[in-house]
Amino acid sequence: MLIDLHTHSSGISKCCRIPAEKVIQAAKENGIDGIVLTNHYQKNYITDGDVPAFARRYVEEYHYAKECAKKVDFPVFFGIEVTMERYGGVHLLVYGVEEDFPLQYPTLFDMTQEELYRLVKAHGGTTIQAHPYRQNIDRMLDPALMDGIEINCHPLYEGTHLDALVAFAKAHDLLLTCGGDFHADTHRPRCGVYLPEGIQSSREICAYLAATDEIRLCVQEVTERVSFDVSYRRDKIL
Question: What is the CATH number of domain 2-173+187-229?
Fold first, then answer.
């Protein structure tokens, strides 16, 4: 099944133009079999200073999306896109942690890369740098302190940087994932990672990616309306 590992909803991500139920509908209409909801977890969303309250709203939005998805028999998995304040706002995707993770650690955005990486690993999760090289505003973080990097297919970016990111991932024995960074601000790309049928959780997604020697991605170049498959083989299993 094809799962988009990078999706937003307007209930949390202010830059997203549609609510969770329409995000799900758009994915289904574009031949995507499930999504990971990775809303923005960023400091400037907290205007009242109540960080724990924001963490609660964040988790509640995921549960709302899950309820919407149940009505149409569509898998929605939990994820986080953390805006790293100490690194100029670089985004790290977090998969495989339980939904109460932000409740336990509400100041994720203030952590160093090493602090976040070690905390996520301690909870059985995986960190992936989102959309490296995007519009020349992202910079690559330390590859020794993350599990992978993302091929991003958002149609408003200048390109997926596919070849450069494949080469970087291979050089550093990293996972390679794919997502659309969907905000409903343009057409919905058909993209993601092919996973076995029956995956039940974000943690199971992480386990599969770590154990397989070949990851099959569905990529849609930003200038195209037709997607294509990419097979990425790692030199060694994590």
Answer: 3.20.20.140
Map out the domains of the chain as residue ranges: 2-173+187-229
- Round to whole Å and give the CA distance between 4 and 24: 11
Structure tokens at 38: 């990775």
Q: What is the pLDDT of residue 135?
A: 72
| DSSP three-state, residue 219 | strand
Structure confidence by residue, pLDDT tens digits, 22-52:
999 999 999 999 999 999 999 999 999 999 9
Write a three-state SS string for 116-167: HHHHHHHCCCEEEECCCCHHHCCCCCCHHHCCEEEEECCCCCCCCCHHHHHH
Q: What is the pTM of this model?
A: 0.95
Contact between 169 and 176 under an 8 Å Cβ cutoff? The reply is: yes
Q: Which residues of 69-79 are buried (b: 16+ CB within 10 A; e: fewer)?
A: beeeebbbbbb
**Tokens 């896109």 belong to which residue?**
81
Q: Is the dihedral of CA 162, 166, 172, 173 positive or negative?
A: positive
Tokens 């070849």 belong to: 163
- Residue 62 contacts residue 20 (beta carbons within 8 Å): no
